[in-house]
Structure prediction request, 226 residues.
Amino acid sequence: MSVDFSLVFSFFIAVLAILNPIGNVPIFLEHVNDDPNEVQKNIAKLMGVALFVISAFFYIVGQPFLKAFGITIPAFRIAGGILIMMIGIRMLNGKPKFDDTGLEKTVVVANPFQEATKKISSIIVPVVTPIFVGPGSIATVILFSQKAPNLITHIFMIFALACICALIAAVLYMSRWIAKILGRNGMQIVSRTMGLLLCAIAVQFVIDGISQLLPNVINPMFIHIK
Prediction:
């Protein structure tokens, strides 16, 4: 069995784009802006773990879930593509919500990890889900899990998912520093670039779905189905 590295790479880029760590830094900071710096960093680590657990769950059980409800893969591809397109357009037109006051908090607490575990329960919803893991990201991992041709490719894709979540945790860990360096305009540029990538990925999902419903109609050069 060989690994479909092109599929793994596409999966990595698609999930990273839709989870949009840089673009979601302002939203994250909105919820931790009143917490000391060390508590915020521990919350970032816990969020990385939560993101992986939730995303991996949908990657593994997504296809049986669709079968249980009688939903075909072409239908889900087209619906997922439309949904991802809406998210991409929203990112292209979005405006930052974060007020950058309060970035300099340096209060010391006795046990920042314990404080973070108390705080994380209150931001699993709405920050981890649905801001990060929402309908669009769930649709993306399910669609890509259906494309994997063999077990070893599935393993590499789950590993890619773990790398994405670790990267997001690192970005959130440094979120106050990133907010200072990039500023509002910089984060807008990154978010809109990710939005453009998502729109292109969404169009590809729709093309793939239509190609399954109407075989021999679309040029095979533009279809990416394994």
Observations:
- Residues 147 and 226 are 6 Å apart (CA to CA).
- The mean pLDDT is 81.
